[in-house]
Write the structure tokens for this entry.
Amino acid sequence: MPEQLDYLFSTLVDDVDARTRAPGARHAIAATRRRTATVTGAVTTAAVIAVVAVTTLGDDASEPSPAPPPSETPSLGVEVGDVPVWYDAAGLHRGHVVEQTAIPLGPSSRGDNALLTLVRTGALYFDRRAGEVWLHPWGGRPRVVGTSWSGPSGDPESDTAAWFEGDEIVVYDTAAGQEVVRMTAPEVRAHNQMEHINSGNGFLRVSSDEVAWLTKTPVQTVVRLDLDTLEISEHVGARPEEGEFLVDLYGEVEAWSSSNTEGIDLFDPDDFAQYLTLEPMARFSPDGRFLLAASAAPHGISVLDLDSGRTDRMPERSAYYAWLSWSYGHTAVISLRTFDGGSGLLLACDAASRGCEHLEEEDGELLLPS
Amino acid sequence: MPASREAAFTAFYEATWRRTVACAYGMTGDLSVAEDLAQDAYCQAWRRWRRIQDYDDAGAWVRLVATRLAVSRWRRARTSSDFLARSRRPEAVEPPSDTTVLLVGALRKLPEEQRRAVVLHHLGDLSVATIAGIEGCPEGTVKGRLSRGRAALAELLGATTGSEGENSHA
């Protein structure tokens, strides 16, 4: 290092020292406590709003909803409670309310490229041909919020969504209407469909704390972006042996297929458990408490409660093939089709009570959240 | 919370604050923003204090986080808006020296990767090997960025460069 440059940098450090005054460690500690308190308060508020919203929606059987009035400012959307969400020929359903999307989303227009994902106050979908990411605020006017080749993934429990544009991951705050992070990162898989999961890309988890995804590499490498530190880390998961694959993850809990048992192996840093009755295609609920999976012998649907370790079967539908998805809260939306792909049922199931109710599905064009 | 834990964090904070702000200042060229970024970085450090207090150089971790936060467009925007939103009356501070103004102005003209390498090495006191590990690239790439960054700085500042080992900060 040339002496002159060293001298200049030391001058800068001295200059900063003379001009800056540290707020103090106590401020940093207090700010961390404030943040924790704010999050807790927000969760409580959200729960209250959700209860009110569910009550309101229960009385709202009108469909479809009127078109939102023109607005100069982008609409933020509203919280809609733990309602089931799906798309069919009638439009985008959230409980009893049907909204019209800006572009058609169904299989006849999108094929395998169909993609629907949720955030706290709306949905995101993808126009792969135009490379456009659409944000559809509940009760508001849909708008393009970004361009992408991967399509988006969202967090039903927060306002966070993510997608890839070029070699950069973009993290977007749907409430603030702005990008929160844009940085170069290992690319996500654009498609990650599997049995019982009818659409999706390689994003495994999007939250206000982190984004996790599968890369394009043959090995099941998981990439994590810590949204507090903007640190990117990669690892090959708990079970990288050949023939096994990562099914889903939530925080530090990973669900892996088991090549030996054809069941699911669950790992966390301190524990390991095998679930032999679950088929290795499954999804964690938005809060990570439940794992929804197809079950074998006889064919059906099961839900694993990670709090208790208990696995229960949903009401028996062994004559059907199940497509699984999560909506808000503990509400799963499950499409059951006869094995020849013909007629079927659409169910909204509460993972906590294991109860299911039938949903009125317009024939054709069904798309479930990924 | 054990008082000793908070006391250890306070000592760490006071010992490393100046250099952390300097790193963020080198990245942003704005002292107020740099102070906010540094404070954000220490908030992250406190949340992870149980883990990072055992690091060989926990200060390097904080400096790294501060420079990452500086890179994020969102953090820049948010920090700026937070700063503007504050109604506090700005405190009178000494203006920066002419040397600092020149150096910061020159740093801001460097491509981001070169600026990060120069700042982390010369202000953050991190070795080439450490920066390579952080950036996920070979050491040669970091050396190349440092070399090009210093050459550009020398040209911008009218200084002269010479060749020397890259591990003087190791």
Notes: Chain B touches chain A through 55 residues (CB under 8 Å). The first helix of chain B runs from residue 3 to 28. The radius of gyration of chain B is 17 Å.
